[in-house]
Amino acid sequence: MTDEDAEASGDSEPSGLRDDAAAFVQAYIEQEHGYLSWLGTRVDSMESGRVVMTVPYDEKLTNTTNPPTVHGGIAATLIDTAGGIAQRTLLDDPLDGGVATVNLNVNYLRRASGDLTATAEVVRAGGTIGVSTVTVVSRTPERVDEDASHRWEGTPSGEAVATGQASYRLFRE
């Protein structure tokens, strides 16, 4: 049901994402989830059907190349996680329902050597299956000094380094 449908039916509460649910998910990912917290994952924005998340550049996440590049698994993790959380935002109760990845497809476009930011959007959230698309961009880290900036392939505005699509099993409570 869209917000307009809710208003037309006389339902006083729109179907948007509750602030407390968004705050809970953000705190969980950034502070309590072992792997995502270790990566330094941030939730930049979250709204109904859309999520933006960032993993900042860290040398522990790089391949042993010169210059270092971020391991592709980090982009894949962002695609999977952001797409699933975007699905969760459309559940009746994002905190009680569940989401499990059914299929994950990642297309790598170019090497990543800076901060990674994923923008996920829900294509469809059906009764039991949902599909999200995600684009990951790489930005030059803010803390890089100008003398070393030539080694970074990302740009300040960001270039797409990976795209992906994932399907999820939705567990509605």
Give a verbal description of the structure.
The chain has 173 residues and is α+β, with helices and mostly antiparallel strands. It has four helices and six strands. The protein has a six-stranded antiparallel beta sheet with strand order 1-2-4-5-6-3, with helices on one face.
Strand order of the largest sheet: 1-2-4-5-6-3
Q: What is the overall silhouette?
A: globular
Report the portion of residues in β strands.
25-35%
Radius of gyration: 17 Å
Counting DSSP E segments of at least 2 residues, the number of strands comes to 6
Q: At the first level of CATH, what is the class? A: Alpha Beta
Report helical residue fraction: 10-25%
Q: Order of helices and strands, N to C?
A: HHHEEHEEEE
The main sheet comes to: 6 strands, antiparallel
Protein structure class: alpha+beta
CATH homologous superfamily designation: Hotdog Thioesterase
Question: What's the pLDDT, averaged over the residues?
Answer: 83
- The second-level CATH architecture is Roll
Q: Total helix count? A: 4
Distance between the termini: 17 Å
Q: What is the fold-level CATH name, i.e. the topology?
A: Thiol Ester Dehydrase, Chain A
Poorly predicted runs: 1-15, 148-152
Q: How many structural domains are formed by the residues?
A: 1
Topology:
Layout: H1 3-8, H2 19-32, H3 34-39, E1 42-47, E2 50-55, H4 72-88, E3 98-108, E4 115-125, E5 129-139, E6 159-171
Antiparallel strand pairs: 1-2, 2-4, 3-6, 4-5, 5-6
